[in-house]
Amino acid sequence: MRFFRPLAPALFALSLCGGLPVASAQSFNDAQRSDIEAIVRNYLVTHPEVLEEAMNELSKRQAAAEQAKHEATIAQNADAIFNSPRGVVLGNKDGDVTFVEFFDYNCGYCKRAMTDMLDLLKTDPKLKVVLKEFPVLSEGSVEAAKVAIAARMQDPKKYLDFHTRLLGGRGPADKARALQAAKDSGYDTARIEKDLSSPEIKATIEENLKLAEEMGLNGTPSYVIGKQIVVGAVGLDGLKEKIGMARCGKATC
Fold first, then answer.
1. Residue 56 three-state SS
2. Which of 131, 145, 122 lies closest to 89 in space, CA to CA?
3. From CA 78, how far away is CA 34, in angstroms rounded?
4. Which helix (H) or strand (E) holds 100?
5. Second label for 157, Cα 20 to 30 Å away, from 17, 54, 128, 173?
6. Within 13 Å of residue 197, how many CA atoms lie on the same side as its CB?
């Protein structure tokens, strides 16, 4: 049994690192193909670092392709992502970088990431933050998101207080807990109950879910920061690095 079959992957590995040129397999007869496979095998055994170099190069190309795809998707949906009236805007509404977070009120990682978001709001006066409800984990998540949207409709200035109470609280979020958080934040809960049947609530959730699907967001929290998509709680330093890249092309401006 030969070391590499088919021939193409080994030749591709060598070609990435400046080794043998890749030729069409159909241009060789069986004897020639066997000879070339033996050469490739001997080369790889003698120079195993070539495989690591090839995989590193492949990873770079895949990352570049993924980033290009992200940038295109963000550009196509920029208005809905950054400027939709259905998002909650915090911080500097005219900021030089917009930080968009998709979250679920029942996401444990979102609870921890909330501290990072609050820290950024306090320390970065040039940052615009947009929060988007992304209820994907449970029916309780959907209920909580509907109450949150109704709260935003009633008074967006109180939203952050409501948001931190509900997301920072213990236990699973649902309609009852969301209404209690709204009451504690000074909202008219009777009006919220009435507004839960508003078409605006359905439209907001549908818009956010559609955006997430188009951008390939498969977890919470997820972020759009400038031209970058970030999935998962990457921590405060990771978020600052992404903001720096969006602001000045470097991790630290």
1. helix
2. 131
3. 53
4. strand 97-103
5. 173
6. 4
